[in-house]
Amino acid sequence: MRSLLPQASANAAEVDYLILALLLASCLVLALVFGLMLVYVSRYRADARVERGKLAQKTWRLEIGWTAATFVVFFGLFLWGADLYVRLFQPPRDALQIYVVGKQWMWKVEHQSGQREINALHVPTGRAIQLVLTSEDVIHDFSVPAFRIKHDVLPDRYETLWFQVEKAGVYHLFCTQFCGEGHASMIGEIVAMSPPEYEDWLGQSASGAGAHESMAAAGEVLFTRYGCGGCHGEGGVGGKQSGGGVDAPPLAGLYGEKVTLDTGAVVTADESYIRDCIISPEKQRVAGYPPIMPSFAGQLEEENLLRVIAYIKSLKPTERR
Amino acid sequence: MTVTETRSQTSYLSDGYTLRSWLLTTDHKRIALLYFAAITFFFFVGGIGATLVRYNLLSPKGLLGSAETYNRLFSMHGVVMVWFFLVPAVPTTLGNFLVPLMLGARDLAFPRLNLLSWYLFILAGLVALYALIVGGVDTGWTFYTPLTSFYSKGHVVATVVAVFIAGFSSIATGLNFIVSIHKLRAPGMTWHRMPVFLWSLYATSVIMVLATPVLAMTLLLVAFERLFRIGVFDPAIGGDPLLFQHLFWFYSHPAVYIMILPGFGVISEIVPAFSRKELFGYKFVVWASVAIAVIGFLVWGHHMFVAGTSLYSALVFSILSYMVAVPSAIKVFNWLGTMHKGFIRFDAPMLYALGFIGLFTMGGLTGLFVAALAADVHLTQTYFVVAHFHYVMVGGMVSAYFAALHFWWPKITGRLYPEMWGRAAAIIIFVGFNVTFFPQFILGYLGMPRRYNAYPPEFEALNVLSSGGASILAIGYLLPLGYLAWSLFYGERASANPWGATGLEWTTPSPPPTENFETTPVVTLPPYSYPYTETSRDE
User: Which of A9, B270, B292, B522 could bridge B353 with an S-S bond, Cβ 3.0-4.6 Å?
Assistant: First the structure.
């Protein structure tokens, strides 16, 4: 049997300290409240002939006192919780990205090199991992108690979640957002292995029966099949009316860049942005191009969409004209 | 003028024995009893759901064997308990009975609207029972989309229609209380001479009137999306699933205060009465209720810290959630201040009230855990949250309801309940409650998710303990049903003021006459003017 709740991630200890502090503060308050109740009910019971003395006057001083004390303590707790939330939930830049699609009632995982797994996620220890999460149907939630993390997994949008595993081992993965009949069976395992073992695992599943191409390579096939290159050019170099095509923005090197929209707003081209451009192009149009991009809503299933995006992300800016 | 006119002194219970005299009554006291019957029924329906849920969780594989059955049971438990017990419990029963009596009035401002609200409630209850009998709903009480609006196989539309209708009953009651409190106060009863129970119901009513329509609209949109595929919440047809959560919690978080504020009011009546002392910091307690009602509207986003809202919204909702906890803390300190140097008696209402203070404090403190952002990420959607809100809702609110029921039982029925049984039940409920729900905090910290019909075997021991506690709790809740019913026939007759309490309701006979007061009372003293001595009890 695995230990009840290991501190398996870099964040886990910090979250536990916060919870411990909250627990200590709560115990102090409870000791005060229960203590006073017990003292009063025994000392001041109706038939106790104890000298009660004068009643407290100027109650507002006490009121202001305990109100202010409560405010100060609460504000401190807020700052602690918020500081940790902000720090621990900003992913490092070099995080290894893995793609996760939830559906009723399973987790489908695809690694960049194309390995796929269901209800399991193999990750290397000692390295920041960023999950790109989406759902095919209802809202799910990707929760790993041993890492003290969870995040809702929404349909039609990408959410991200990052963690870094410190201890090799096998940990529970739970869906914690009620998602229908099989909710309780939407569980899996996070298998954390040392980096060499992880490389071995990637190598093993790359050969043999489950052989496959990388996500980006699979995305390239889809890119061609759906005719994306017709406007955006082969290799996503962009199209120009003067060049015999239509004006279409280049895609190579797009990922992570700032994009100016026709509204004047500037956004960062992350996975969500690229997804929106493919599924709901009317939401965010790039400045300087005609609004001719069609919507691919309903034509690409979530996993293929992720592969197309992986391909677009793989295109190097050097191919840009 | 005829201020001193003598009114009929027939007890409201003896004023007609026909079914018609009950079902068409506009007497707030009789309507309160109609509500009592309905609320008690739903409490036990919801309780059966809870019992089966705890039974299923005795084994890691789930003793009921079917995930679908389990999902429908906990959904039914939630829907029934929230909208057919917790929200209406204190306002419609004790509130209906006591608001005019405490105000020194003949009835509520709109007696027929009051009766209508009961019929709406019954209609809503029948629709809910229909949905339940034909198979129930499998969405949880939170109806998250797009699960509810598209994927659910349960009877969603009937269920949301039931809640929709129940909402109108809430609004009617709230409106009635607001107008009554503004217009029907007895001569001399200034705002700051009103009992805290009235202030609490006033704050509750404001929330009911302002928040319930949002829930009604939201549920209507869910029904439309489900029936006609109008894209509001389902992204597959152009909707936004988070919009539902914002709208739902915009009602449902204030609704938590609809449930608990009347409880605060009850405790603020009982602690002074059994400490023979005025309420400590009356104005602070009163304005804390108002502050809770206002800030309570601004914290809904704390249900969504891991839902995919922005970092800034998480920060804002976290600090506002801490702010709303401050007035609750103020109240606890003031109740303790009231007991200080008092002449404390341990009758059943006081035992329930002490239980309330302890359990509510634990519920409130664990709320601080889930308001702290980084801690919430780990604890939310687990049994920690289940334990937290049961400490507030059941340990707090249901204890307050039982405290109130025992305190005003002699006034309502004209009979005394058997005191030893009352005390025994209070203690059994306190113990059973803690054994049931404390293990759930630990389960939640260890990571056990909510709404699982089957769970990994390492969680078994704590689940068995929790289910064992639930059986103690069930006995605790069945006991009052027995001895209170017994007291209706065999209980000692109650005097007008068996507790020696202040408040206008104790100046009229028990049970009160239909007209409430022989002459319109005039208020000359602040509330809780207890003579500071132990010998003021009317034995």
Answer: B270
State phi, psi for A286 to the nearest 5 degrees.
-70, 140
Task: For residue A233, give both structure tokens.
Answer: 């050019």
The span from the CA of B62 to the CA of B78, in Å, is 19
Q: What CATH number corresponds to the domain at position B467?
A: 1.20.210.10
- pTM of the predicted model as reported, rounded to 2 decimal places: 0.92
Q: How far is A45 from chain B (nearest CA, A)?
A: 4
Nearest CA among B326, B386, B335, B384 for reference residue B356: B335
Q: Are A178 and A102 in contact (CB under 8 A)?
A: no
Smallest CA–CA distance from A160 into chain B, residue: B308
Those residues whose C-beta lies under 8 Å from the C-beta of residue B119, and which sit 6 or more positions away, are none
* pLDDT at residue number B538: 43
Contact yes or no for A254/A316 (Cβ under 8 A)? no
Which of B147, B342, B445 has its CB closest to that of A180?
B147
B338 lies within 8 A of chain A by CB: no
Task: Specify which residues A106 forms β-bridges with.
Answer: A103
- The per-residue pLDDT for B56 is 97
Phi, psi (degrees; rounded to nearest 5) at A280: -130, 70
Q: What is the CATH number of domain A215-319?
A: 1.10.760.10
- How wide is the angle at C-alpha A17 spanned by C-alphas A15 and A21, nearest 5°? 120
The answer to whether residue A82 scores a pLDDT higher than 60 is yes
A214 Cβ partners below 8 Å, 6+ apart?
Answer: A112, A113, A114, A310
- C-alpha B521/C-alpha B104 separation (Å) is 6
B307 touches A: beta carbon within 8 Å: yes
Q: With pLDDT > 90 as the criterion, what percentage of chain B qualifies?
A: 93
The domain tally of chain B equals 1
User: Which pLDDT band holds residue B499 (cuts at 50, 70, 90)?
Assistant: very high
What is the residue whose two structure tokens read 């038939």? A47
- Of A66, A88, A151, which has the smallest distance from its Cβ to B333's Cβ? A66
Whether residue B138 lies inside any domain: the answer is: yes
For domain A96-206, which architecture applies? Sandwich (2.60)
User: What is the C-alpha to C-alpha distance for residues B422 and B399, in angstroms, rounded to an integer?
Assistant: 12
In a domain, B165, yes or no: yes
Q: How does pLDDT run across B394-436, given as a tens digit for each residue?
A: 999 999 999 999 999 999 999 999 999 999 999 999 999 999 9
Portions of chain A given CATH number 2.60.40.420: 96-206
B304: three-class secondary structure by DSSP: coil
Residue B18 lies in a domain: no
Tens-digit pLDDT profile for residues B326-380: 999 999 999 999 999 899 999 999 999 999 999 999 999 999 999 999 999 999 9
ipTM for the predicted complex: 0.91
Q: Is the peptide bond before B409 cis (omega within 30 degrees of 0)?
A: no
Token pair recorded at residue A175: 């869906």
**Domain of B103?**
30-507
Whether B535 has a pLDDT exceeding 50, the answer reads no
Query: How many Å is the maximal CA-CA distance in chain A?
Result: 103
List, for residues B441-478, the tens digit of each pLDDT value: 999 999 999 999 999 999 999 999 999 999 999 999 99
Residues of B in contact with A53 (CB under 8 A): 341
Give me chain B's average pLDDT, please: 93
Q: CATH 1.10.760.10: which residues of chain A?
A: 215-319
Rounded Cα distance, B229 and B226, in Å:
6
Nearest to B515 by CA among B7, B71, B96: B7
Structural domain includes residue B169:
yes
Answer yes or no: do B381 and A182 touch at CB < 8 A.
no
* Cα angle, residue B531 at apex, residues B4 and B268 outer, rounded to 5°: 85
